[in-house]
Design a protein that fits this description.
Order of helices and strands: HHHHHHHHHHHHHHH
CATH architecture: Up-down Bundle
Distance between the termini: 12 Å
Number of strands: 0
CATH topology: Na+/H+ antiporter like fold
Oligomer: single chain
Shape: globular
Radius of gyration: 20 Å
Number of domains: 1
Largest sheet: none
Helix content: over 70%
């Protein structure tokens, strides 16, 4: 269990240090607000789409996937989204704060923490399932984010057609779709003597693939630095109720609801979950809210200060909640 705690600590502390770096740079007036707004736009429109594409492209095969578990994950995310909408309606009167709260309920940092966490808990077998599940969650997370942020970005609810168009034009959605199409084409291509597709970007265009992956690595650190530059400690007091609601729903309710539901379904025989799938559930439902959630709020609309606070505080508290989640699952012999 010490290994799990240290993993959580090592996964979260770099996030917080990069946020702190951005805050220090702003205090030192290293760059003005115009620079950080432009950097935020660059992350949203270029680097994050590349990161999502590369994450999905890494999927090797869809054979022997537990599709029942994949379907359950999608259903759980949609259920959490609905619960988030209800929470926003009941407890968040400010229209611009509803989108960030809804995101915090259903959206996690699975794309960044999911696979390494699954590997630490379940080894290579868990990583294979987590890669497929992550592709699904990335598409769902970002599609639902565009919908909820668009709905509450202004004073009036936008028409359905406008929301759909904004969703399809969203750079993150485009990155996900291109990644899924690329993987599908690769699976349809003839195989060589080694069992690999006759054409692979990583093998046949290494210069291009290296450029893509190098650019993709810029996304998370730059997003965190920008997040820190826009972070305001003075806003904590004014937003303490919203921060508390978001942290509790993201780190306590979401894992209890989704992982607890998976255990019950596995015991009843409705859906089979094994040591290959449970680590993915931990990464998807017990991790803090995604860094990109704050980036999207800044681009689409909403209370971006609340979005930044939720990223920071769910990340801080997740060190303890991930440890507690894994401890309970080990105690009851689920992992």
């Amino acid at each position: 269990m010490t290994q799990v705690f240290l993993f959580s600590l090592n996964a979260v502390v770099p996030i917080l240090l990069l946020v702190l770096l951005g805050w220090v740079l702003r205090k030192l007036r290293f760059a003005d607000d115009t620079f950080f707004k432009t950097a935020n736009k660059l992350v949203f429109r270029v680097f994050l789409p590349l990161l999502l594409f590369c994450n999905i492209y890494e999927i090797d095969s869809l054979q022997d996937v537990n599709w029942g578990a994949v379907a359950y994950i999608a259903a759980a995310i949609l259920a959490l989204y609905a619960i988030g909408v209800l929470c926003a309606w009941l407890f968040v009167p400010d229209r611009l704060q509803k989108g960030p709260i809804i995101q915090c309920v259903y959206r996690s940092n699975a794309a960044i923490l999911g696979i390494p966490l699954a590997e630490a808990l379940g080894g290579t077998q868990a990583v294979a399932f987590t890669a497929v599940a992550t592709a699904e969650t990335v598409l769902l997370f970002n599609t639902l984010a565009v919908i909820c942020l668009s709905r509450y970005a202004g004073e009036e609810k936008p028409p359905v057609r406008q929301t759909l168009l904004r969703t399809l034009k969203n750079p993150l959605i485009i990155g996900v779709i291109v990644g899924i199409v690329t993987v599908a084409i690769r699976m349809l291509l003839p195989k060589n003597d080694s069992g690999e597709a006759v054409f692979l970007l990583s093998r046949d265009c290494p210069f291009f693939f290296t450029a893509l992956t190098t650019a993709a690595k810029v996304a998370t650190p730059l997003a965190l630095v920008v997040l820190g530059a826009r972070f305001d400690f003075a806003a904590i007091h004014a937003l303490r109720k919203q921060i508390t609601l978001g942290v509790v729903m993201r780190l306590v309710f979401a894992p209890l609801f989704a992982i607890g539901g998976a255990v019950l379904r596995s015991l009843s025989g409705l859906v089979r979950f094994t040591a290959a799938e449970y680590p993915a559930l931990v990464g998807i439902f017990a991790s803090p809210i995604a860094v990109s959630s704050a980036v999207m709020i800044g681009e689409i609309g909403g209370d971006d200060q609340l979005g930044a606070q939720l990223v920071v505080w769910t990340s801080v508290c997740s060190v303890l909640t991930i440890f507690a989640t894994v401890f309970l699952m080990r105690y009851f012999a689920i992992l």
